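REVIEWER CHECKLIST
Item 1: Sequence provided? yes
Item 2: Single chain? yes
Item 3: Sequence as submitted:
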Amino acid sequence: MNSKPKYLCAFGYHRQNWIAPLIALEEDVQLVFVFHIYKADEQIEGLNAKIVYWSDFSSAQDLLDQIKPQKVIFMSIDSPLTIALNSVARKMQIRTVFLQHGLMHSLKMYDEVQRRGTPLQVKTQEPSKNALARRNFILKFFLSSLRFYNLKLLIYQFRLSLLERKHSKAIAKSKVYSDLVLADKYIVYTRENAKVLSERDKVSDEKLIPVGIPEFDIFFETQSDTETYIEPYMLLIDYPMAEVKEYNNTGAGYTKKEVNNMYLALSDYAKAKGCSLKIKLHPYSYESEFMVQDKNITYLRHADTKDLILKSKLIFGAVSSLMLPALVFKAVVLIEVFENSDFALRLQELGMCDSFTVKEIINGALISAKPKMNSRNKDLFVNEYLYKTDGQSMKRVISELLRD
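Item 4: Structure as written out by the authors:
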């Protein structure tokens, strides 16, 4: 009989960098993942952990009674399924933990992102279960999870649903509050980067535990070699600006023509400096096929991002978390994809990099640019976005996940 404690992880396990801190617990903990509603939705095979599906259970109580976890770990608590699970787990005195899995932004930024990401007008594959069946299951699961003591949660969800008819999900959630949707603990990169949790969800400061970003320990564990390759290149850390097939929306809301014109403008700039252009695509863009073909451009999907960043001559990028180590080691040109990006505004305030809008880049504004590293405020930048550069973030997050 396995005597290890069991953790139920309501987490997307299709992105390795998201779940790396959880997989690191396997020697000490039994992991059970729940993410998809139906098994037919499954995207990956071979995960060395038990996987269950929401539809395997009639309610949050049923899920917790069968799995019997000592702790529940969430990547977000914003759907009826995760809200019900968090609330019932806390009522059953099971510890709940929020684990940050990506760069966070301001409430204004999330509002803009959600408003821009309009549905794509393309024919998509029919889901494994029709949308009505999914909605009915979610509603039934949520209502079945309620008891008399959870009447407040029903009122919360009803008010939230009404607000979402008028506002984006981010704004709607900021206008309604319930302690029942809060986790017991929030493991975050830095308190500064996690401010939206206080602004939107009313999470108290004492619940926020900063640990740094485990994914970037590899940049700081040893002295990094930043010499460029014999064949010099500039790197674009891309953002899904025109298409996200996985969610059937337009990403940041730009047209495919605008994105291709930006790629070509960046390539022309690189070529004028004797460099090729490598574009590290965002995972949401891996399935896209609209990208312009040019002899000076190489598109990369899976890549050694440490080597790619450290060996580059210059880096372009928008709001990806990969911009954080890039800003520590390299000269960077920021692409202003969103009007309300707190990340872009803060980098400008700190003087960390030059910045241009997509339109300015297309119109040739880079010709006069002379990007260079600015180390004057680097310590402040690290404190606000990386916490520490000691290569020990994974150890800290593991310690917090195992702590009672």
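Item 5: Key structural point noted by reviewer: The longest strand covers residues 6-10.
Item 6: Recommendation: ____
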